[in-house]
Batch of 2 targets.
Target 1
Amino acid sequence: MNRHVVGKAADLPPGERLVVTLDGRSVGIFNVHGAYYALLNRCSHQGGPLCLGTLVGLAESNQPGEYTMTRQGEIIRCPWHAWEFDIRTGKAILDPHRSRVKTYQVTVEPGVPAGVPADVETYAVSVESGLLVVHM
């Protein structure tokens, strides 16, 4: 599995996306309410640029004539034919068992700020139950 650093998490605020080319594939990275997801930028319907589509919510209804909008910003609508996909899973909204787009794992990892020499001594830091722990 290849790792690709695509930028700083702080540069991709909630509700925004970044489309990049990784290993020859166009991939969209999304910040959905502070969580990061990546999708292949190719709609499974007819190959449209899915990640350039509109971010929408999900219309849900318990009875005819009444609906509520939920999951705002968690659904991507293809700009070609309006097929909709769950950004978190890649599954199509209309037929989630048969149609989906490829998803990729996204992690936020600590990095060395620009301008800091690579040979500077560092220590791993983690947060456990609200306590800041330095591992030496």
Target 2
Amino acid sequence: MQKASRQGLGQTFTNAHKAPVFTEFFRRTNGWVAGDGALSVPLSDGRVLWLFGDSFIDCYDLATRTIPCLFQVRNTAMVHDEADLHHARTLLNSNAANRTLFQPPANTQRWFWPVSGFQQGKTVYVYLTQLKPGGGLGFEVDGHAWGKLRFPELEVAGYVELPDFNGIDFGCGFVPEADSGFTYAFGSKLDGVEGNLYVARFKTAQPEHDWTYWDGRRWSTNVRESAVVGRGAVALNVCKFGNRYVLLSSQLSLACDQGREIYASTATRPTGPFSPRRKVFTLDDVVQGHYPFFYVPAGHPEFSNDRDGLLVTYCINGYAPAIPACENGRMQPDYYRPKAIRVPLELITP
């Protein structure tokens, strides 16, 4: 049962709870109308950039409140003023034949999923995971790259291929530290059905060069010497909330009625160690008695504060096989939209 107490004119929660204003933000009827990802990048001019993977664009039917069964683009983004959740602009490629925002140069057999990013001066760097057909889920990782957006226009300026990270995906979150001039890049690597967390760093002004990797004692130029600094379930995400580095992860879910838990652990330094994970939320999204296939818990410090807690989004991807996603060529968009919760600081850091 949700517990709440009153402090002054506001309401202070001691348990994680739904954030309906942000869930409604994702219930859009034009531009981006459904998809997954929902990774945010705060911009220096007061705007926020949201990154999405497979997405439905301008296809919402007002009469039936449905969308087609097949998405139109492999990735896209939205931008809006941080204080305005009503008006957002969808970023798309100008090519009418393929509106996907980030596209591998001259390679139609690959595609990108944007997974995190940060701004440096006149450039927004977006970490892209490149995929190709194959694997048990129908796709497999085939490298990583920076996608570069010009700021403030937010137009694609080009791509920079990233090196082989020895199986580590350094797209779990970027934390720039102004005092040191470094940005910390957090990465994950599967270990059985869970994920190990690693950390690298680079000069914020030079993200394309000279990455070093924490080996447990010092920063090494050899990624193979990377040390585990934390451990999560799956779909690791790291952000900084206050003076804590927060690691979010989720219980394994590959279909409906499987995992439902979201976990958090913390550290006072980017190199850890991160505390043992704690369960902070259990999904309560139910349709006809079934819970959804879900993934990608992500923290959004720019929308967070001590009173309301850390804003966390997670993505749902339908209730199949119990409830078919597609009926007569149409589907409910809410089956493929992010949801939002608030997690109190005291629950993350007891």
